[in-house]
Amino acid sequence: MAENGAKATVTLEIDGVEVTVPSGTRVIEAAEHVGVVVPRYCYHPGIPTRPAQCRMCLVEVEGRPKLEPSCTLQAADDMVVNTASDTARTARQSVIEFLLVNHPLDCPICDAAGQCMLQDYAYVTNQLESRVDEPKRIMGRDRISDDILYFADRCVICTRCVRFMRDVAEDDSLIVAQRGDKAYIDTFPGRELDNPFQGNIVDVCPVGALVHEDFVFKARSWDMDAAASVCPGCPTGCNVTIDTKENQIVRVKPRHNAAVNSWWMCDYGRKHLVMTNRGVRAELPLIRAGGGDGDGGELRPVDWATALDWVAEKIGTLGAPGGSAVVSPDASNENLFYLRTLLDRLGVGDADFRVPQGETAELPTVPTLKLRADRAANAIGAGFFGGRSVDGPPNGSAGGALVVLDDELEGAGEDFGASADFFLYLGTRLPGAARNADAVLPIATFAEMDGTFTNFEGRVQRFHQALRPPGLARPAWMVLSRVLARLGDGEAVDDVRGAFERMAAQAPAFAGLTWDGIGLKGAPAAGSAAEAAGVAGSAEAGA
Amino acid sequence: MSRRIHPAVVPAQPFQLTARETFDGPIFETEEGKHRLEAALSRYPTKQAALLPMLGFVQSVKGWIEPADMVEVAEALDLTPAYVHSIATFYTMYNKHPVGRHFVQVCTNISCHLNRAEEVLHRFLAETGTREGEVSADGEFTVIEAECLGACGFATVVQVNDRYLEDVTPDCVPEIVENLRGTRNGGPDAGGDA
């Protein structure tokens, strides 16, 4: 504090381990370098203000008479910190005991149970019996916004939510009302929170006080499976974790990535992802191989081998090259790459894609995080693979081959694709406009497979399978690699690594990238804005 | 009330009212309101710093602070209504519920307690026909128990709006209540000299 010398690093001892950290680092963060997570409530790495008010992170520093809050204490040379001394543990135990004076024992119905920092620390301090005889104060439940509930009794008044809104979202409409044991989180009477990023207050809540209404009582934390993924809501590509239960997405939480979304994501992304549970899916391959040339019969379900053989045979017998294609800007890079390989074979040029537009929203203190107007996950990727952004209804009146990849063909007429020589529809759903298709191949959504998206600045980001695809639906790259293999082009791939490797070898934008190399934080595509900006590093955004 | 006084003197003008007139409408559009706002803003480096004095002013005029007033204060000081709400609820001495024209606070801390403060309190409640904290039917009285009013040498102490009544005994309560009923704004003979 007193000495702000030119030294770039300081060396201190934490729990008997020497560690060197950049000067200015707080002890709570320095401790993480040696594997010590100091208990905390009010401290959150993504929230700039540190009021040191929860008193959970108190640590003992040799030579100092009183315990110090490690979230605000700057690491200094020769400092000897003990996070688990008797004094520090006793202090922590007292904090927990005071919090438990009024905290209800409703863990069995609390959505945070199993992921609750109060529960965890209470177990650690091992206070099995309460010393309190008085009744607990009861405050009840409130609505903070149209989709966020507040269970006041569970709240530990760490003010993370208030400070997220005030200091990160710069929206001063969530506050602490009253004081002392009557304190609670509130908005102005009669008004609700209305901010496009307000869902993050649920994520930062260390206990079960703030809960999304669409998640409340829906799943216990130990019943859920989680998969690292990327939000497909807009080209920002916020890193997320998808929580699933019984093959349904029940919750989406942001996953930290300093170069993209810091610790946060927008509410549109959350809702968009949970909505993907909806709708009837295409589950079986369908081919029109009833009468004669294959244009007389009805679409009938077949197994994959039959469908793929038939599709490959039809493609092999097509006459002059040419045709058209409609692709979804939500398709993964691998899907788009394999589609492009097929389209090149068919002599199809531009693949049309349509990007729905929506309202934008910005998180003022995190410049990279923005809900962008383009409502598509991978328009940049589509551009890499010969995609062309168009407006208006899809054009399906040309002759030759017509290939549609996961576009629901909104606005297409009755005769969409009727004049095509061969109409191949690969989709997650079966819209009416696919009625003229010669073959329908059911494919997996992004949540049902592994793959990558390219975000707005060219950052290639991996997402992982969260759900089981329904019926016989399979990833489009898996399907298309088999069609191509039957046409003598490459091998059938079963593993996304294989698909990615072939893409990296053939598509210049992905040159030099490997599936493992990208990791869970992504890497910039060759020649992209992300590469130019050098965002591959881990510079802390928004801190 | 249009006198111009030096801003530094403003807090020393505590409107020693024993009863206030009812007030309705935008407070900062009155001449007094404009003057108080301007004076407070000239005293502090930020607008936010004027929040407590302005809430105090609203309460001195209306007796309590309702959400509409918080919005008005927030607009005057470039704050959010929610923030004003958090400050107003943090301090218990800002009334968030309506009070009668005479807001009677009976001290029941140690010295007053030894001088029969509870009896004084119950006598006030009985004479005004109210329960603690509620407004009497005629809108004249609200009686509450208060923590130490800092006048232990004159127990039992009763504060009526901004004025202290000292050495109050249960027997003087009917007369005090009677006198208060008759007084209007700033009456000098508000009782309590017993």
What does the model show?
The complex is a heterodimer of chains A (543) and B (194). Mean pLDDT of chain A is 91; it is low at 535-543. The longest helix of chain A has 17 residues, at 86-102. In chain A, strand 18 (361-362) and strand 19 form a beta hairpin. Chain A has 13 helices and 26 strands. With 543 residues, chain A is α+β, with helices and mostly antiparallel strands. Chain A folds into 3 domains: 9-84, Ubiquitin-like (UB roll); 105-223, Alpha-Beta Plaits (2-Layer Sandwich); 286-533, 3-Layer(aba) Sandwich (Rossmann fold), CATH 3.40.50. Chain A has an 8-stranded mixed beta sheet with strand order 15-14-23-22-21-16-17-20. Chain B has 2 domains: 7-90, Orthogonal Bundle (Arc Repressor Mutant, subunit A), CATH 1.10.10.1590; 102-182, Glutaredoxin. Chain B is built from 7 helices and 4 strands. Chain B has helices spanning 31-43, 51-62, 67-77, 81-90, 110-114, 117-128, 173-182, and strands spanning 102-107, 141-146, 158-160, 163-165. The longest helix of chain B is centred in the N-terminal third of the chain and has 13 residues, at 31-43.
Structure in a nutshell:
The complex is a heterodimer of chains A (543) and B (194). Chain A has 543 residues and is an alpha+beta fold.
Characterize the overall form of chain B: elongated
Major β-sheet strand ordering of chain B? 2-1-3-4
What is the first-to-last residue Cα distance of chain A? 20 Å
Note the main sheet of chain A: 8 strands, mixed
Largest sheet, strands/sense/barrel of chain B? 4 strands, mixed
> Mean pLDDT score of chain B, rounded?
84
Specify the CATH class of the largest domain in chain B. Mainly Alpha
Strand order of the largest sheet of chain A: 15-14-23-22-21-16-17-20
Q: Count of DSSP E strands of chain A?
A: 26
Low-confidence stretches of chain B: 1-17, 185-194
Number of domains of chain A: 3
* Fraction of residues in β-strands of chain A: 15-25%
